[in-house]
Specification:
Layout lengths: L19 H31 L9 E7 L17 H8 L2 E7 L4 H10 L26 E2 L7 H6 L4 E6 L18 E4 L18 E4 L2 E5 L6 H16 L4 E6 L21 H22 L6 E7 L26 H4 E7 L8 E3 L3 E2 L3 H8 L15 H4 L10 E6 L2 E7 L2 E4 L2 E8 L8 E7 L2 E4 L15 H21 L4 E2 L2
Helix pairs in contact: 5-6
Length: 493
Amino acid sequence: MSNKIEKPALISFENSNFPKRIQSLTISLRRKFMMCDKILLCAFIVLLNCGVIRSQQLPNIVIIFADDLGYGDIEGFGAAYSTPNLVKLQAEGMRFTNFYSQPQCSPSRAALMTGCYPQRVGFPWVVGPEGPEWTRDKYFVGLNPNEKTIAEVLKDKSYATACIGKWHLGHHTQHLPTHHGFDMYFGLPYSNDMWPANMPAFPDLPLVENEKTIEKNPDQSQLVRRYTERAQLFIKQSKKKNFFLYIAHAMPHVPLYVSQQFAGKSGKGLYPDVIQEIDWSVGEVMKTLKNEGLDENTLVIFTSDNGPWLVYGNHAGSSGGLREGKNTTFEGGVRVPFIARWPKRIPSNSSCSSFAALIDLLPTVADITNTKTLPNVIDGKSILPLLLGKSKQNVREVHYYFQINDLQAVRKGKWKLHFPHNYEHVTKPGTDGVRGEITSQSIGLSLFDLEADPGEATDVSTAHPDIVVELKALGEKFKSEMDRDKRQAASSQ
């Protein structure tokens, strides 16, 4: 007796004795099931292409953040020296010509990390270690752990996360990046000028790894290279899962330092040398992504925290013809280069003139990763439709310009209204790292057409009183709401 199991024969209706009606009904049902299979298969493919099913389809995200790099400081935005890797990034991606930071270091980082105007999260001013008089009421301040950072949004999606470089959102242990969603940290916890060599009242400048100081007063000429090497190592170690890499360079914030490899390379002075070393770093990061087979599925962003610190003269950058610089709410203080590259998603060699800002990056990342809800009220909006080239409309109707807690200007469309305020103006630029001289000047209620007059030279308020009334009302309403709803920073005290 055989143990072989015979497969049941398929039913055939040919020459069968089944009634014709049963044969017809069965054939009809079989065709319907086949059609359902095709529909389900198509739906699966659509979902797969949208990145909804497989988490590995989500992109890696790299944000490269320069310090005090002005609008005119890289090739393609006005620089007279070469930055080939940033030019390549623009050719392979999209450049924004109306992208906004904040007037200073810490506020910009708060905006980037939280998706909020820094005033909303208790970070309207620069913080630092205990030292000069201005630090006495700020040295203990840090980002509130109740604020959900861009790193924490991505941790919820199982991303590996790293912060390399300048943090500047609190230097006490409980305020460091490892307490705000980053798996690892390597860098300076605040600005590179906050050290005894610049001002004896400051303590030694710490180089921190995770939560431990590993060096004091490190050789700053090696910072760009060391940060780049750490970034490359993180990419290689994290390539089997999605990752978020935040590289925040200390440069070109004064004091300027450059490695021997780039000293004198530009032939145009120390500041261009520093920019070319940052450009080299961008190229090394891109090269590593390509070598590891990751560049096609990585969103890379390059931008800056504020405009150039003009009081330092030849050790400062260029606003590219925009008015004023760092520490002001004129365009030269807050409009910065922005480049984004994401192959097959962001159109190559494209440009966007719609306005956007650092506050829009967290909601954009949330949009990309299908994060539906955030725990706190934020101010930014996703710019994904702009990045993908699907829209040219501003994602926010209005942009607000704050200096510390003072709302100084409002932009809607092409119109920018300055409220009366004082601002610092450079009367004598410094030389070779020595600070120059500034004076306090003032501006009255003034309206500018940023399309026709990006340098904010001609007040047209008398010709457009209706626009003045509208923008003034928007500003007053928003300031009132902000004062009512703003949240507190954290304290180590």
